[in-house]
TrEMBL record:
This is IS200/IS605 family transposase. GO terms for biological process: DNA transposition. SMART domains: Y1_Tnp (SM01321). It comes from the Bacteria. NCBIfam families: transpos_IS200 (NF033573). One of its GO terms (molecular function) is DNA binding. Signal peptide: none annotated.
Length: 138
């Protein structure tokens, strides 16, 4: 049962929903050092907690970050992403004024775009085959 350790329950559902999120800095500027990434992880964990989302993995480089989140079905990923990017941008600008030189025109740390990919579970081909093979009464 180890592969199902992360099953979560809601009021009327049981779920395992994971997403891989990637955020890129505005203009792909290389702005993050280790201290920035450590603080970004803390901020993003706090935002996730507000949404009842588990931030399972976080890592990044100088111009982007990766997050692996486990989220309940009531959470719209677009709203989570908006909050993660907005709060982290605001906090990082407040706490690290030196970052301002990288986004002097647009008062944003992040690019407007992002990547979100579903993660886990069986491949689509296996799910298709499973559904096709379900019993259908005559």
């Amino acid at each position: 049962m180890a592969e199902y350790d992360d099953i979560r329950t809601g009021r009327h559902c049981i779920f395992i929903l994971h997403a891989h999120l990637v955020f890129v800095t505005k203009y792909r500027h290389q702005v993050f050092g280790n201290e920035h990434l450590v603080r970004l992880e803390e901020v993003m964990r706090d935002v996730c907690a507000d949404f009842e989302v588990k931030l399972e993995e976080f890592n990044g480089e100088s111009n982007h970050v990766h997050l692996l989140v486990n989220f309940p079905p009531k959470v719209a990923l677009s709203k989570l992403v908006n909050s993660l990017k907005g709060v982290s941008s605001r906090r990082m600008r407040q706490e690290f004024p030196g970052l301002r030189r990288h986004y002097y025109r647009a008062n944003r740390l992040w690019s407007a775009s992002y990547f979100a990919g579903s993660v886990g579970g069986a491949p689509i081909s296996v799910l298709r085959q499973y559904i096709e093979q379900q019993y259908r009464p005559a």
